Amino acid sequence: MRRSSVVAGIGGCTPDRVVTNAELARHFDTTDAWIVSRTGISARRRVEPGQSTSDLAVVAGRLALESAGSTDVDMVILATATPDRPCPATAPVVAARLGLGTVPAFDISAVCSGFVYALSVADGMIAAGTAGRVLLIGADAFSTILDPDDRATAAVFGDGAGAMVLRAGEPGEPGELLGFDLGADGTQEDLITVPAGGSRRPRRDGVDEDDRWFVMRGQAVYRHAVRRMTATAQSVLALADWRSGEVDHLIAHQANARILATVGAELGIAPERVYSNIADVGNTVAASVPLALADAAAAGVLSRGDRVLLTAFGGGTTWGAAALTWPELVVAARTEAAARTEGERVL
Ligand code: UT7
After folding, report:
1. I want to staple 274 with a disulfide (CB 3.0 to 4.6 A). Which of 75, 194, 264, 283 is the partner?
2. Are the C-beta atoms of 147 and 153 separated by less than 8 Å?
3. Best mutation site among 19, 27, 38, 116 for ligand 1, i.e. most ligand atoms within 8 A of its Cβ?
4. pLDDT tens-place string over residues 102-141
5. Distances in Å between the alpha carbon of 67 and those of 60, 71, 139, 154, 298?
């Protein structure tokens, strides 16, 4: 029989530096009213110079291990679009900093869908018997690639990390992952992109400095996000044999409050069942789904046996959804990570 995967722990982390709409309005031609009405975001968190994705991932990972009551994991998967370095992957250094020895560790790059992709990969590793307990983390320091002159992306994106421990379990256990739907459409790669700095346009080729920054075609992304997040969630509902009225919580990628409301309405899920922490953290890319899960769990929103539907859309373009039930868990409130002091050792 196929081994089931069960959620065993969860944790979240954001940098301690809060960037309010009022602060953005001091740098850009924007207002709190514009940002709140178009995105639902009031504040986002940002790393300080020198603070990186792995710094956030390690804190969230530690909280998830504490929540699971054990540091016993045999694999680390990190979903991120802002690795500490272009090469190598960031997961190995996260595993090392968490004291997890020489367990296999690798990154997944699917931007805002990255955590749902990672969840599916971890589930497959457990089902195949390759791993028994997996630490998976979604983390991004997206502010490090934002165009300093772009008021639209400045308003939307924030930094953070969310982590989960997944273990082999029994079918029917609370916390079981019940199914996935994943997809990608590379014909839309230009919707969400950093144009230069990869092998297609190496930095050494004298590329325009501006092309090293993140670019998003906001309106088109908005439309694709609504369509794909709704459709992939519908596929998973069919797979899990759930009616939309039976979903206790829709935890969607926190792209934009209006997108969340529209996806919830199109799925027929009541607004009070559509969880959101976007007002406080913004769109945290790969961290968005696990951070929302961690915040909802810490706030007591998620109870044992609740039916949880995840859905996400991101660059690539990529999308994915998952159905799971919620386990009994001890979950601490999200930790705020302070920047490292100069000279402090990383490992
Ligand atoms: O995480 C991956 C998925 N990402 C998303 O799902 C994001 C999806 N897109 C969005 O959330 C929205 O498109 C944005 C919030 C990024 C932009 O909102 P919008 O309502 O789509 O605005 P727009 O791009 O159509 O721009 C309308 C106007 C423009 O001015 P003009 O050209 O009409 O004069 C923009 O320059 O709003 C302007 N604008 C702003 N004005 C004040 C853009 N950003 C701002 C701003 N403050 N921060």
Report:
1. 264
2. yes
3. 38
4. 999 999 999 999 999 999 999 999 999 999 999 999 999 9
5. 10, 10, 18, 33, 11
Domain 4-173 architecture: 3-Layer(aba) Sandwich (3.40)
Tell me the CA–centroid distance for residue 208 and ligand 1, in Å: 24
Count CB neighbours of 284 within 10 A.
Answer: 32
CA distances from 332 to 69, 79, 297, 327 (A): 12, 22, 9, 15
Quote the pTM value.
Answer: 0.96
Q: Residue 226: is its pLDDT beyond 60?
A: yes
The residue to mutate among 193, 194, 256, 283, having the most atoms of ligand 1 within 8 angstroms of its beta carbon, is 256
Written in H, E and C, the secondary structure of the chain is CCCEEEEEEEEEEEECCEEEHHHHHHHCCCCHHHHHHHHCCCEEECCCCCCCHHHHHHHHHHHHHHHHCCCCCCCEEEECCCCCCCCCCCHHHHHHHCCCCCCCEEEECCHHHHHHHHHHHHHHHHHHCCCCEEEEEEEECHHHHECCCCHHHHHHECCEEEEEEEEEECCCCCCEEEEEEEEECHHHHHHEECCCCCCCCCHHHCCCHHHHCEEECHHHHHHHHHHHHHHHHHHHHHHHCCCHHHCCEEEECCCCHHHHHHHHHHHCCCHHHECCCHHHHCECHHHHHHHHHHHHHHCCCCCCCCEEEEEEEECCCEEEEEEEECCCCCCCCCEEECCCCCCCCCC
Residue nearest to atom 9 of ligand 1 (CA): 218
Catalytic sites, residue numbers: 112, 253, 283
- Record: fold of 177-325: Peroxisomal Thiolase; Chain A, domain 1 (3.40.47)
pLDDT at 210: 80
Nearest CA to ligand 1 atom 37: 152
Q: Where in the chain is the domain with CATH 3.40.47.10?
A: 4-173, 177-325
